[in-house]
Design a protein that fits this description.
It contains three helices and nine strands. It has helices at residues 92-97, 116-129, 148-164, and strands at 29-31, 38-42, 47-50, 53-56, 66-85, 104-110, 135-136, 170-191, 197-199. The strands form two sheets. Strands 4, 5, 6, 7, 8 and 9 form a six-stranded mixed β-sheet that branches. The protein has a three-stranded antiparallel β-sheet with strand order 1-2-3, with no helix packed on it.
Length: 206
């Protein structure tokens, strides 16, 4: 009697047009270069589900190699219920979304493999800037190895790391970080000499 391993093979074909999806073994998000559809692999269900993927047009062009790196972008509703700290400091909401009484905005989470410091830096700066994008569909998506569920956990890390890093010495905080409507935006990055890169939207070097 043959025992089953429990593994299930998932055909990486576009559910819309049947085109083969190019992917690295670590990728969990795929872009169809034929019909511009996007999909995310949901491991709990062993299936791929539709997700919106857009490619941001750079604000300025550089004479060097350009690649598109993925960010998860959520509609965010942040509510700080209590915050106990030594001293006083302007709240996170004002620092991120521009107005102290404004809970909502977009929360950005890098979805490609890089250091935790780069994830924190890019996530914070893009969330603070709330950039406006001109979008295209045709492009090549590089290395989306972070699922939307993992991105929600990273968003929590970004939030807490910024709060903990403020000069008023945070003691305790209770909050809710409501994230919804996940989508992927592929941000253009230009390769610099050595191993560095700079994004083509805000101009952050990593």
């Amino acid at each position: 009697m043959t025992e089953h391993s429990g593994l299930r093979l998932i055909p990486l074909k576009c559910k819309k047009c049947g085109y083969l999806l190019n992917a690295d073994t670590r990728d969990v998000v795929y872009y169809c270069g034929n019909c511009d559809s996007g999909f995310e692999l949901i491991n709990e269900k062993d299936e791929i589900v539709p997700v919106n993927i857009d490619f941001a047009i750079p604000n300025k062009n550089m004479d060097t190699e350009k690649i598109y790196l993925p960010f998860w972008v959520f509609d965010a509703d942040i509510k700080i219920n209590s915050r106990d700290a030594a001293g006083s400091i302007t709240g996170f909401i004002m620092n991120i979304f521009g107005k102290e009484d404004k809970h909502g905005g977009k929360f950005y989470v890098p979805a490609f493999e890089t250091s935790l410091e780069n994830i924190r830096k890019l996530g914070l700066e893009f969330t603070k800037s709330q950039p406006e994008f001109n979008m295209i569909k045709k492009g090549k998506l590089n290395g989306c190895s972070c699922s939307s569920k993992d991105a929600e956990k990273i968003a929590d890390f970004i939030f807490l790391s910024i709060e903990a890093g403020k000069s008023d010495m945070l003691k305790n905080i209770t909050y809710s970080l409501g994230l919804s409507s996940p989508k992927v935006i592929a941000v253009p990055f230009y390769k610099l000499s050595g191993s560095g890169m700079i994004d083509g939207i805000i101009g952050i070097s990593i």
